[in-house]
Amino acid sequence: MRELIETIVKPLVDFPEDLSVDVVEETNSVTYKLSVNKSDIGKVIGKQGRVAKAIRTVVYAAAATRQDDSKKVYVDIVD
Question: Main location per UniProt (predicted)?
Fold first, then answer.
């Protein structure tokens, strides 16, 4: 999942070297915390959150196709 998020976000940002995805695993969920350069936050979120929603939709769909893990997946964009 981390590679999928990086693949989606890298072309969107001006500073791909500042992109990081941290994974926080809990008993019933996995949270991917996406961090980008301050100047790229708007590009990742998009107008009215459309880009962020699209990223979450793709990640949730990819997680749903995995049969080996029944944990809920979340994507958070942190500043």
Answer: cytoplasm
Our separate counts of H helices and E strands in the chain read: 3, 3
Residues of the domain holding 53: 2-78
CATH of the domain at 70: 3.30.300.20
CB 52 within 8 A of CB 44: yes
Q: Are 39 and 58 in contact (CB under 8 A)?
A: no
Q: What's the whole-model pTM score?
A: 0.89
Give the separation between CA 52 and CA 12, rounded to whole angstroms.
11
What span, in angstroms and rounded, lies between the C-alpha atoms of 53 and 75?
10
Number of independent structural domains in the chain: 1
Each residue of 7-32: pLDDT tens digit?
A: 999 999 999 999 999 999 998 999 99
